[in-house]
Fold this protein.
Amino acid sequence: MARAYVKVNVAAGKERVVKDALLRREEVQTADITSGDQDIIALVEAQSFDELLDLTLNQLRTIEGVTGTVTNLIVDKDEE
């Protein structure tokens, strides 16, 4: 399983619309509107890093209202 945090920049006033669109995707585990350098931080999962990169580069960026993304791959996570 590949996981990443995706920081999403959004056009003004589109935060909730984009958040809802993100959460409709099964790969998106969480999406939170935040303050700071990004408007939304989403936790995403896929079967492989290749699938994860396709998701972030070719799918999430095409959501209307998204102006840019930064993807931080999770390379080591404590298992619960």
About this structure: The chain has a mean pLDDT of 94. Residues 49-59 form the longest helix (11 residues). The chain has one domain: 2-74.
